[in-house]
Amino acid sequence: MARPLSVERAEVSAYTVPTDAPEADGTFTWTETTMVLVRIWADGQVGTGWTYGSVATATLIRQTLAPMLIGRPVTDIGRIWPDLRIALRNIGYPGIGSMAVSATDCALWDLKARVLGLPLHRLLGAVRDAVPIYGSGGFTSYDDEQLAAQLAGWVHDDHLTRVKIKIGEAWGTDQDRDLARVRQARDGVGDQGELYVDAIAGYTVAQAVRMSYALDTLDVTWFEEPVSSDDLAGLRRVREGCQADVTAGEYGYSLDYFARMAEAGAVDCLQVDATRCGGISELLRITPLAAAHHLDISGHCAPYQHLAVLAAVPNLRHLEWFHDHVRIEQLFFDGADPPRDSALHPPESVGNGLTWRPDAASPFQVF
Ligand SMILES: [Mg+2]
Description:
alpha/beta; Enolase-like, domain 1; TIM Barrel; 2 domains; 3-stranded antiparallel β-sheet; 14 helices; globular; metal-binding
């Protein structure tokens, strides 16, 4: 029997890309986004995975995780992952630690698929050929013209039938503008389109319930983080008081986080981010947990990192087509094909189907 192929080299780099306009949501403002990229080599193949976070994530990978990979069999992700996790026990796993493991795990899965000569979604057991997406942006910092242009791009250029905008402006202190922008988004997506909002913890519980009455009149069917995602009882109170689906989970850094959120009855749909939660490996443990609670999952951001694994998730609602990450991933990778029919379609080429473009990325490199 042939000896299993082993990891020969692992490298990490980081790229900071300015936004195309100042961006803000209910509780935060930003002007740039940093991608932390992991590449792992074996037998002439390279696997690629990434997360969006601090350069500190890259430092942690270079110092602690990357050296652990060398010489490990490429097909042994199930044994490598627990070793990565335990290596960060005393460093701090949730947050930057789990994001570091996430990017590394995603690169290992891509490498494994390439070494085996399979498309990644086939290796993972695809159950669908299309992953539905929804347009996501609609920042509170946009003026009416900027919002109109973004909505038109999603609806008319990308042919998306679902869109989401940010509300909860200035910690929930400008409800009138929130509602005016939701009205504009309803006009932009049309009567038949699905309209979602994300308050990013900008409201109080009672305020969120009151807001939901107005959102109902505009047929908003997705109310994301109406209150802090740490307030599971509060999320549940909003959920019981409003018609829209209440959702959260993007700050989930472990299986246990999602277990607590599901058991609390806090949400109608769990949002899972493979670039934060522990990678493809942990996402594949979270989805059956969600299924046992009769919940769908929705992929949070980093669309091309999620495409293959979400094609293998039976209880999938959709994937977030997040403005900032779409820009970066389409710039940095060949093979990041545009959506069709309001969905992304996993490519039948090996691995994740993407090829890194060093010339496009190098002007933004910071690590
Ligand atoms: Mg969100």
